[in-house]
Amino acid sequence: MTTVQPNSRKVVRKLSKPISSIKPADFVSALARGLEIIRLFSLDTPRITTSDAANLTGLSRAAARRFLLTLSELGYLRNENDMFEPQPKLLELGYAYLSTWNFPQLVTPYLRQVVDQLQENCSLAVLDGADVIYIARAEARRIVQSITISVGTRVPAPVSALGRVLLAHQPSEVVDALLHQRGLQAATPRTITDPLLFRQKLDAVNKQGFALVDGEFEEGLISIAVPVFGESGKIVAAINVGAPESRATPELMLERYLPALQDAAKEISRLIKISGKQPNPL
């Protein structure tokens, strides 16, 4: 159980101020303070006390308690011995926003966070037959590969890190059908074309939770991808980062790129569960 320590250094969240040309008389301070109370909750702070709320917002203890009790009465919080925690009804406040956006729009900010952190392009793709199709992408405006990738681009699943992650979580009969119908075509001299070796590679990807493709999709390009899981726990998409070998090595991919991708994939999976939206081929 994690709570804010009352004796820790006081960090006051500044109350949101009126924006644009709104008149001060039109700004409802009580509503703004109530929203500030809601924003105190996070993964690191799943519960707060009245004293915590007062310390973090700068409100008096009496005012903080009134806001907490009102939110509890409305069903947004649960109060147990002056320990307040969010309730599922709180999700309704965010769902109105989520419901107005399609899936690519919802996930792109998470891809952008990866781009900002790594300064390399980040994409999300789904499996469509024997191909992967890119349905969301954030670009770092740096040259990565000679092949132009954009939303809607299709590439053969077996040669890409995205495709291998997606195939690694499919039933064996799906992989067998792909190998039978299309086979393994070499994109570069380093592409795996042996079916047995390819299946072993997929088994390894499934166990380790990521796929690393070095020069098999395009010579001089290295890419790493991780799965995105849906509400049922089944894979629904994958996200990746690619970089030229002049800027990245397999070791750097595992040390720096992989954690950033895993964090983003976890957030996107959580978003899918909250919003109920699923990634689908375009």
Structure description:
The chain has 282 residues and is α+β, with helices and mostly antiparallel strands. The chain has two domains: 73 residues, Arc Repressor Mutant, subunit A (Orthogonal Bundle); 175 residues, Beta-Lactamase (2-Layer Sandwich). The protein is 40% helix and 18% strand. The chain has a six-stranded antiparallel beta sheet with strand order 6-5-4-9-8-7. A three-stranded antiparallel beta sheet has the order 1-3-2. It is elongated, with a radius of gyration of 24 Å. The two termini are 43 Å apart. 31% of the residues are buried. The N terminus is likely disordered.
What attributes characterize this protein structure?
single chain; 282 residues; alpha+beta; Arc Repressor Mutant, subunit A; Beta-Lactamase; 2 domains; 6-stranded antiparallel sheet; 3-stranded antiparallel sheet; elongated; disordered N terminus
Question: Can you say what the CATH homologous superfamily of the largest domain is?
Answer: GAF domain
Radius of gyration, taken over Cα atoms and rounded to an integer in Å: 24 Å
Count every helix, treating DSSP H or I runs of 4 or more residues as helices: 9
Q: Give the CATH architecture of the largest domain.
A: 2-Layer Sandwich
Structural class: alpha+beta
Question: What's the CATH class label of the largest domain?
Answer: Alpha Beta
Largest sheet: 6 strands, antiparallel
Any idea how many domains? 2
